[in-house]
Amino acid sequence: xxxxxxxxxxxxxxxxxxxxxxxxxxxxxxxxxxxxxxxxxxxxxxxxxxxxxxxxxxxxxxxxxxxxxxxxxxxxxxxxxxxxxxxxxxxxxxxxxxxxxxxxxxxxxxxxxxxxxxxxxxxxxxxxxxxxxxxxxxxxxxxxxxxxxxxxxxxxxxxxxxxxxxxxxxxxxxxxxxxxxxxxxxxxxxxxxxxxxxxxxxxxxxxxxxxxxxxxxxxxxxxxxxxxxxxxxxxxxxxxxxxxxxxxxxxxxxxxxxxxxxxxxxxxxxxxxxxxxxx
Length: 279
Ligand SMILES: [Zn+2]
Hints:
Blueprint: E1 2-7, H1 14-26, E2 29-35, H2 39-51, E3 55-59, H3 72-82, E4 87-96, H4 104-120, E5 125-130, H5 144-151, E6 159-161, H6 168-176, E7 180-183, H7 194-199, E8 205-207, H8 229-240, H9 244-258, H10 266-278
Helix pairs in contact: 2-3, 3-4, 4-5, 8-9
Zinc ion binds at residues 6, 8, 35, 92, 210.
């Protein structure tokens, strides 16, 4: 059994939800964390998670979705959502410094405040980091995200650097802070990632697809979906000289362990969900 720890499948049309879940189950992807990117979108993630037993929700406001710094009303709403039983992670939150990104000040404040909500609710954080130029990798002293993670003691709740694409030095720093490294299909094409895939302890690796409606791809069958997790697992097994079964075992254990404080019964929920879904 594999787990996709970061996707946005609730953003597909509701008509597609069931097919996406069934295609994943056929590939043995039995647990999916679907993450909201705004308050409204987080509500939708919770709605999907309340329909499918093997879908779990992430909530949060993505840095590129900010139209101002999150205010008190927003934070109260996020905190309320964080209390829902379908929610297993605070996600997607983070830092995104690109030319067109929202103000740095809004991002820093909002990341910090959402981490604090996560801490209050024992929710691990699954975060996005995209920083300017090289400071993503090497010049981490200047990394805004790392300093917020340190200052807020976010390592207490744990979580993962999602869609990790940086270098090993950066991965090492995140591991030292207590986070997992979450790998996606980019592992099959970015050779610089191989060092991280090899050096990260097996107890600290997660798998994800970051699947969302890829409208820019005309051929619907080419859209990434949770069913593609075995591709990432297979590549990781090949790189580490092990079997896909072994990768499946440790990544699933890591995912379940990460959310165990928050949702101790996820394993049994997933086990129960497999039988009826396949019937
Ligand atoms: Zn995402």
